[in-house]
Amino acid sequence: MENIVNLENETFEKEISEHEIQEKEEPAQTEPAQTEPDIEVAEEISAAPAERYRVFLTTHKGLVRDDNEDNFTINTASRKLEFKNVSYASEVEAPLLAAVFDGMGGESKGEYASFISAKTAKALYTSLKKEDGAPVAEQIAQYVQTANDEIRNFLEENNCRSGGSTVCAVIIRDGVVYPFSLGDSRIYLLNPDGMVQLSKDQTLAMKKYEANIYTLEEAENSVDSHKLTAFLGVDYYREGLAPQLYDAFAWQPSDRILLCSDGLYGELTNDVIQSIIREYPDNPTLELVRAALKNGGRDNVTCVLIERVE
Fold this sequence. Notes:
Layout: E1 2-6, E2 22-23, E3 40-41, E4 52-60, E5 70-74, E6 86-93, E7 96-104, H1 109-128, H2 136-157, E8 164-165, E9 167-173, E10 176-182, E11 186-191, E12 194-197, H3 204-210, H4 216-221, E13 244-245, E14 249-250, E15 256-260, H5 262-265, H6 270-279, H7 284-294, E16 301-309
Parallel strand pairs: 2-3
Antiparallel strand pairs: 1-6, 4-6, 4-16, 5-7, 7-8, 7-9, 9-10, 10-13, 10-14, 11-12, 11-15, 15-16
């Protein structure tokens, strides 16, 4: 684990010492009872030939909200609830699972919904490591339904009908990228040709745009852009929730992938995002979040950037 920073204030100065980070192997059966670290570092996976990826992650509660309803998964790593602001950079071997979650729901239900989504994703990563596992699309579908059902169980136990979490994620295995999402958290592909949004926002605004009710500009600036039509937890009756699967593609040497919640792209334009990533190669997500905070920090903000280690 490298460049670990616990961002418990807006100055981004407090570093986490090594004893606060625990590295452990995946348990064979059950995990021993213990205090969880704020970031769990996944065991490195042996591969031949090895695919190595550099992953940058920063999440911050923003300047307006008291809680951080965003979360993340990097293989088996996720944010512990008491750590509101976290940043780190590390190298991992394939298979790689990276995801960003944006929770919603009153009285901290959104924070727990995204936390449940992130924790449930660990089983997906474990499944991906199996040589004889099911096709990736099937594993993703199983994860989405399980996460939905776990969120519904939590909400019902707490007498709350509404709540849930977005998800945007990529799985990278054998040099192939498998993107999927639900909600309005986004996946971008960056390369020398520019920055392209791979994911599709599942919002009422986009439905109206597709129905020729809104122009794209009207959709992006409408209040309907914040009204989600799909997310983890929306399947109230557990009838079946399908993820948005996008075309898999082969990783190219110049590719980078950015995952983010709307707290990032709501504050920064694509041109600004690309400029910051070029200017700060050593920790681009930290600088992206700093820029989002300078622009207002009106929402929780989380971003993950992935690049191949050649």
